[in-house]
Amino acid sequence: MSDELVERFELAFNKIHQHLKEMNRYPKNDNFAELLNHSKDRGVVREYYDVLRQYAKLRNAIVHERVRDGYYIASPHVEVVEELERINQTLDQPPLGLDIATRPVLFFYEETELFHVIEAFGKHGVSQFPIYRDGAFTGLLTDAGIVRWLGESVDGGSVVVDRMTVGDVLRHEKVHNVEFVSEAASVFELEDLFESSHGEGEKLKAVMITEGGERDGKLLGIVTLLDLIKVDGAEG
User: Fold this and answer.
1) How many CA atoms lie within 13 Å of 132's alpha carbon, on the beta-carbon side?
2) Most buried among 6, 77, 79, 119, by the most CB within 10 A?
3) pTM of the entire structure?
4) Domains within the chain, CATH numbers bracketed
5) Residue 106 near residue 127 (C-beta atoms within 8 A)
6) Is residue 219 within a helix (H) or strand (E), and if so which, with residue range?
């Protein structure tokens, strides 16, 4: 039984090691502890960081401190092996971006009267809405963008909202960094997109999940950095 548990432990451990290599794009230093440390803020790795560090020590004892064939100085308990296999299973089949996305997504067209959008901001407590024209995505309208437009539109102490459309305001909105992914995208892929946007100009504002990942495909969900932080907080 001991040999079987060791084999199962090593198999699951090696698969997790491979996942860590993939997450870190196969760096030259592929030491398990180093890869784990570099990945500690990501999804399931963050949740199991401490336990994986301990399992790495156990693995070193099993592999490097074997007394002779079939006799190990340390051997994993069945509960340890089963937990390691569960961690690997989660890495094999990570949660989808749609699992944490806001959906259904409320969106508006450029010809929509601005008054309706202002009402929606207050009612739904969100900070941005996707905007479309003739079925094509044209940008994000944010609460900050509306405030900026109001500041630029004050005339004699008042602002005329009547007959204004979303399109009128969208022209005053910043061009936000938005990515499009398919419904098959995992949470890990979304984390990569937000992470890679750091230091590359404007940070990623949102990830739009659409059918087939097409820019103008059917909108299925939207994910912000806050959504990922909420998930990490829940897992922690």
Assistant:
1) 12
2) 6
3) 0.75
4) 2-89 (no CATH), 99-235 (3.10.580.10)
5) no
6) strand 219-223
